[in-house]
Specification:
The chain is built from 12 helices and 9 strands. The strands form 4 sheets. Strands 3-2-4 form a 3-stranded antiparallel sheet. It has a two-stranded antiparallel ribbon with strand order 1-9. A two-stranded antiparallel ribbon has the order 5-6. This is Putative E3 ubiquitin-protein ligase UBR7. GO terms for molecular function: ubiquitin protein ligase activity; zinc ion binding.
Length: about 400
């Protein structure tokens, strides 16, 4: 997604502070989304990748045809110059590039692909539209500033104002399940009554008043059972957490919560705090139910987009530790190394001083300013060369 200038002189100039801040933010976002994906090799041989950055090509698979998704590398190598929809990330997806959905294109990176990927899941996102309003993003006809939030179940993106609830603070640290997915999997409402982010103080207080008596009884019963069974558990299996004993004894946390009967208004999207997945029941019965519903990923805390983004950022930081300049210097002799290092340090210092002057005076940097700076650099380099100046050890 990009923005275009209308061509007026003022729109071609921006403050240095704005440039630096925008560049830093874009780099961080790119590292988060793309850092965990390979930009050189098609992901198809890896099978159904747990989570990866995906794109849809409007040039090759326009609306009215079959949905198809391509990996990061194929978006660069096979679809350069095409009209692409950025899908952010999707889970358990295998690259479609060049398969039967593409009538006039063969994958340049991995041409030997099966006709279709039967386990891939598609949505209207692959045609560049999102939310319940079925609109593109960004939407040229929508003048309302609103954030888009991804449902972790259907992985569609929805406008905050179309979620049927108030978007909580620190939403970037939370996960959201849309109302349609909550209703499609009703057992999630039981968990929501106990684990979800409270929607409003009044609603939270009402729920507490309705269930406080039963909650106290349940906690007392659990404490009594825990105390009586501690010695047996330690003697047989050694120390273990309450969740482990519950699973080994066949207890079901979901049934316990259902028995409590705590209520929640069953409408609108639901937001969940970051540790909520670890509190879901993983007894054999629940595992089978989740598998049948295609929701096994809910028990996997590494499935979250936040975990994927952190992996991308860490990978980018590791790659950043290998300076390409230093790698190139290894192939030069000592005299050449010193000359290059001197030139590099000179230019870095002068560019920093040049830009700091603009920042201190609150001025903008124009293309002419940058051009003039490098012309001066070239002029100084020629003067040093003509004077016979060089460096050696």
């Amino acid at each position: 997604m990009s923005a275009e200038h209308s061509g007026s002189p003022r729109e071609d100039t921006v403050s240095l502070v704005d440039v630096l801040q925008e560049d830093e933010q874009l780099e961080e976002e790119a590292s988060a989304v793309l850092g965990g994906s390979d930009s050189d090799h098609c992901s198809y041989p890896q099978g159904y990748v747990k989570r990866q950055a995906l794109y849809a090509c409007n040039t090759c698979t326009p609306k009215g045809g079959e949905e198809a998704g391509i990996c990061l590398a194929c978006s660069y190598k096979c679809h350069e110059g095409h009209d692409l929809f950025e899908l952010y990330t999707k889970r358990n997806f295998r690259c479609d590039c060049g398969n039967s959905k593409f009538t006039n294109l063969q994958c340049k990176l991995f041409p030997e692909k099966e006709a279709a990927n039967s386990k891939n899941k598609y949505s209207h996102n692959f045609f560049g539209v999102y939310c319940t309003c079925n609109r593109p993003y960004p939407d040229p006809e929508d003048q309302v500033e609103d954030e888009m939030i991804q449902c972790i179940v259907c992985e569609d993106w929805l406008h905050g104002r179309h979620l049927g609830c108030v978007v909580p603070d620190c939403v970037e640290l939370q996960e959201m399940i849309c109302e349609a997915c909550m209703n499609h999997h009703p057992f999630l409402w039981t968990y929501a009554a106990h684990l979800a982010v409270p929607r409003a103080a009044e609603e939270e207080q009402q729920v507490k008043e309705e269930s406080s008596g039963e909650e106290v009884k349940r906690e007392a019963k659990e404490e009594e059972e825990s105390t009586s069974n501690d010695s047996k558990a330690e003697a047989s299996d050694g120390p273990s957490c309450k969740r482990s004993r519950q699973e080994s004894e066949g207890g079901c946390r979901l049934k316990e919560l259902q028995a409590i009967g705590q209520k929640i208004v069953q409408s609108g999207a639901v937001f969940w705090p970051s540790p909520w997945r670890s509190k879901l029941c993983s007894c054999i019965s629940c595992q089978k139910s989740l598998a049948a519903a295609g929701l096994c990923f809910l028990l996997d805390e590494s499935d979250t987009v936040l975990a994927y983004e952190n992996k991308g950022k860490n990978s980018e930081q590791e790659r950043g530790g290998h300076d390409p300049l230093m790698s190139a210097l290894d192939n030069l002799n000592r005299v050449q190394q010193l000359e290059i290092i001197h030139e590099y340090n000179d230019m870095k210092t002068e560019l920093k001083d040049f830009l700091q002057g603009f920042a201190a005076e609150g001025k903008v940097v124009t293309p002419d300013d940058i051009r003039q700076f490098f012309e001066q650099q070239q002029s100084r380099k020629r003067r040093r060369f003509n004077s016979g100046q060089f460096y050696c050890s």
